[in-house]
Amino acid sequence: MGKRLGLLLIIGFALTTILPTSVNAWFESCDRQIVLAAGTSTTVSSPNYSSNYGAGTSCRYQIQAPQGFTITASCSIKIYRDANNNCANEYFYVMRDGSKELLGSEYLCGTGSVQRTSRFNKLTLAYTSGSYNTGSFTCSLTLNCDCGWSVSSKIVGGRTAAVNEYISMVGAVNLLSNSLFCGGAIISPFYILSAAHCFTGSLATPANVGALVGDHDYTTGSDTSYSALYRISSIVKHGLYNSVTNVNDIALLKTSSEIQYNAGVGPACLPYGFAINAFDNNVILDAPGWGTTSFAGPVSTVLRTVQLNTMDLTTCKSRGMTDVTSGQLCTYTAGKDTCQYDSGGSLYYRYNKLYTILL
């Protein structure tokens, strides 16, 4: 990003004093919708760029990417400001949540470069001009794969999880009894990763299974506004799943409708960037779930999490886990473990403030 040259940045708490009663009226003659596909980029510029836009004009750019992506705008702006370094009725707006109303947005004026990234998959840019002055801007738009965010950056073990800490966490719901029976993790807008052994008998029928996302305490609806229940259209078990040894104990659930991402719901990152042996020994992983808090004990109605340490295969077998294979991951921490009804939930590794799931 280029060096800032006298750029004036004013946070948008004063926007109610500079926006008209109807924001949309400003943009009736120039209101553009830009849809970006994965793997693409584009440039958004003010009218007549590289010359100035006309005095008294305005334009709004509503930009949308596929779910699972954020949008980064790298902008060079030249917006007039007066002798007192105030924005003289010339404003460049950035709304990181994509709202078209612009209330709460940042607005800028001056000359220089600025970079902003959307909170999710929508971003709104706009400018407004007074009757006498003009300016210009150009913004390069790029997409970033987005996953694994969290409301909390602090991780401790053996505790109740923070509300919406694990945004990819799914509770598999038995729709016949309205009860949770396993866990899972969102990996894309239509797919959930879980365990094959969870889906037997009547629960092998997709119509009998639901996916609860964005929840924390499933007995109340007041703890989070992000919870939603999705129906399942298909359940696919790993082709080499062995129900006796539990080798390849993997299932993919497809939802009937697209999972809507927000601050409390989104995909986990997948461990593509790690070597196959990166988690062999003494790596701390998180294991969240709504399972029982003791063997044969009561289930937890709130999402809980425990930290477990990985163990290499040789040590694991020497401690009695003789059936473990090279395709499985061994964890052990004294006095801590997952329990009944935690099955299907993933192990999470915290990396660069993002959650990556491991099988």
UniProtKB/TrEMBL annotation:
Residues 155-359 form the Peptidase S1 domain. One of its GO terms (molecular function) is serine-type endopeptidase activity. InterPro entries: CUB_dom, Peptidase_S1_PA, Peptidase_S1_PA_chymotrypsin, Peptidase_S1A, Sperma_CUB_dom_sf, Trypsin_dom, TRYPSIN_HIS. Residues 30-144 form the CUB domain. GO terms for biological process: proteolysis. Keywords: Disulfide bond, Signal. Residues 1-25 form the signal peptide. The keyword Ubl conjugation does not apply. Belongs to the peptidase S1 family. CLIP subfamily. This is CSON009911 protein.
